[in-house]
């Protein structure tokens, strides 16, 4: 039994690391998509004119490179997601130790943050996770702009995941930064030690 418990902890640690790697990939994809957005192009927009010549209004070579990077990272993301799903099954997914294993779909990406970090207490779980005042929440566990309704959803997710990792992505200085937040009792108010305010649509 002791060996089995040790194996479970080892498998859980491995799973958390894999999810962290996938979160980094998701953030990198978002940042690359932001680069495309700056050039006013999408993943599928033609890079040649009506006569078949390369467009002169955009950096065609740079855009092709960015698109290639996005596709490669998406493929890596899918592979990691497959591994996560396999590991979750092995660890009894009904225990819900992680957010959804669904991979980032480039066509579903929303750059719109849904909440802002307004205060971070010292020595709190939020500070340990490197949450900072002014960070804009793009992802908080399973919550994103498209399914966020109010802060009660954040509170519910936190209480359901005490002492478990919540994968968070924040928009900071025009870059998406992936973080791992572990809510817990810490000697201050709440389980996070930060104040989050919704962003009005």
TrEMBL record:
Biological process per Gene Ontology, one example term: proteasome regulatory particle assembly
Keyword Signal among record annotations: no
Start and end residues of each Nas2 N-terminal domain: 19-93
Membrane spanning residue stretches: none
Superkingdom as given in the UniProt entry: Eukaryota
Coiled-coil parts of chain: none
PANTHER family: 26S PROTEASOME NON-ATPASE REGULATORY SUBUNIT 9 (PTHR12651:SF1)
Protein name: 26S proteasome non-ATPase regulatory subunit 9
């Amino acid at each position: 039994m002791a060996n089995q418990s040790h194996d479970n902890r080892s498998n859980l640690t491995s799973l958390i690391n894999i999810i962290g790697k996938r979160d980094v990939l998701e953030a990198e994809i978002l940042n690359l998509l932001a680069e495309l957005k700056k050039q006013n192009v999408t993943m599928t927009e033609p890079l040649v004119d009506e006569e078949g010549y390369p467009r002169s209004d955009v950096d065609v070579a740079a855009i092709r490179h960015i698109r290639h990077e996005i596709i490669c990272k998406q493929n890596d993301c899918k592979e990691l997601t497959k591994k996560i799903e396999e590991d979750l099954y092995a660890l009894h997914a009904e225990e819900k130790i992680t957010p959804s294993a669904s991979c980032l779909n480039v066509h579903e990406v929303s750059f719109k943050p849904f909440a802002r970090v307004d205060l971070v207490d010292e020595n709190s779980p939020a500070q340990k996770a490197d949450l900072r005042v002014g960070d804009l929440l793009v992802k908080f566990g399973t919550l994103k702009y498209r399914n966020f309704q109010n802060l009660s959803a954040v509170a519910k997710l936190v209480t359901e995941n005490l002492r478990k990792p919540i994968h968070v992505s924040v928009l900071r200085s025009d870059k998406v930064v992936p973080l791992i937040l572990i809510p817990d009792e810490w000697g201050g108010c709440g389980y996070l030690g930060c104040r989050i305010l919704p962003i009005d649509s």
